[in-house]
Each structure stands twice: as structure tokens, then as C-alpha cells.
Amino acid sequence: MGRPALQEEDKRIIQVNIRLTKEENNMVCHYAQASAMTPANWIRQKAFTGRFPAIKLSPLNAELYRELHKIGVNLNQAVKQLNTGKLSPAFVTILSALIKTQKDLLNCLMK
User: Within this chain, do residues 103 and 65 fall inside the same structural domain, yes or no?
Assistant: First the structure.
């Protein structure tokens, strides 16, 4: 059984061509892939709703993101303890390195 036929008013018969730079095309393709859409559908939804389509993370990435968020909360609490003098200043470099690592992981996850 094939795909059901579209009603005449639902058929997309008008084509609009746009030119993008390589960087713009890479961004559109990246956002479309993250949203589990084709670039054309991503552009269409952005154009007609004015909002970016929701980014869909795989369950593994979503779980990883939540875990990284929890780690970040703990890091922020440790930094607060350090700033109030309740934690030894020797931990400054360790906490700074951990915060940088967390940010790098989040950046990799969002690519």
C-alpha cells in the first residue's frame, strides 16, 4: 500500500529558491538534524511560526544532559561554599577545571 494521496489544496506546488552561504547552510542543516526534520521543513516551520522548531535529543543525550545538569548544580553549590569561606581555597583550581569540563561537554552535546 502506497502513501495516501494528498488533497489538491494540500499539495505543495509552488517552489521558492533561496541562496545561502556555506555557513548558513551548515547551520540550517545542523538545526534541522537536531529537530529531526528536513532542512526545507525546518525553514518552513521557522518562517511560518516565527519560532525555532523544538530540538529533539535522543533519550541517551537527554539522560546525559540531565546528569550533566545535576553535576552543574553540585558544582555551583561547591563554588558558593568556596566563596563564603566554608571550603578551602585549594579547591579553586579543581572547581574551575570541573566547570570548564562541564561546559565543554554541554557544548559537544548540543552540536
Answer: yes
